[in-house]
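Whether sequence alone determines local backbone shape is best considered at the level of individual chains. When preparing material for the folding task, we compiled for one chain both its residues and its backbone structure tokens. The sequence in question and its structure tokens are set out directly beneath this paragraph.
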Amino acid sequence: MKPRIIALYLPQYHPIPENDEWWGKGFTEWTNVAKAKPQFRGHYQPRIPADLGFYDLRLPEVREQQAQLARDAGIEGFCYYHYWFGNGKQLLERPFNEVLASGKPDFPFCVCWANHDWTNKTWEKGNSMRKDSVIMKMNYSTEDHESHFYSMLPAFRDKRYITVDGKPLFAIWAPRAIPEVEAFIGQWQALARKNGLPGIHFVGYTVNASGKSVNSGKLTLWDTEHAAEYYNDLLNKGFDAVMSAGLNRAKALCHGKIKLLMFYLACRTFLPIAMRTDYEKAMQHYYVEEDKWENVYPTLLPQWDRTPRAGKKADPMTGSTPKKFQATVEKALQLVKDKQPEHQILFLKAWNEWGEGNYVEPDLKYGHGWLNAIREAIAKYKK
């Protein structure tokens, strides 16, 4: 049985009227990627795509090439970020809608609801055409939850849709942001059964450490030893599983909690301080013992550098290479090897987050190195 690696997929690579208004005509993720500048000696910026170039996701040929690259690397499918803001309002939906309507590529997929406000903090404020901070706000209601479900129903019924225990997998990026999330989950489970599905497999994204207690909400200065509280908080709300991420924990243990707090406070001012984290060292602290739980799906982080989006306020990981990433994949595979085959899931974070320096698509420096790392780790795992 092959491990189930599902790659988070960003559909930000085509112009939309809203981005034209907010950031300038023709804006896409590539706008900031291409003009990123090194912030220190040896800093790998800008990062330039190789095989696929500065692609446009309105082209079906590009989507077919992406699927083939992922398939060859041993990735099971894509998990498309899904921007539903309420009252039927969506953004960046065209690539997924075309995949669904055309039946191509013939490659498995699921959806992650990116249920967060859009603000002009996503990229450097100097690039924004708007002064207000919130440019697209999330709205929730019981009526809208029903509309949202029925908008997703054709996808859930598609033969390509990824399932776990026979149920369509639906991930949520900010599960704690949904008011009365238990009622939302119950509503969707009832609607699923009403429409002939066995239910929905809900996966909530969560960090395993943060600057706040998940129970009390009080500042904790990165409580790095209580991942179980973060995981159980979502599982007790009705989620079937959690998608875990350990970058906060890794940074806290690499730099110390006080320095990390100072960095985030400085980022709120005009006097950012530099903070770099060594990739190999960070990966020693990224995972926790609880990631072996049956209902925890750890994430794979190949690299991380938000310089294209944040400029001097970025906190890049340094020293990441395909070889070091392969070691990370091998470590993560050991965390899931004793789980039921259906639950041997790892979320690749991410397939194409170029603006966050977080991708495995071919680039000019490493070529297919990131994809080869995944394929070779899986080959060793299966032996």
About this structure: The chain has a mean pLDDT of 92. The longest helix spans residues 142-156. The CA atoms of residues 173 and 205 lie 5 Å apart.
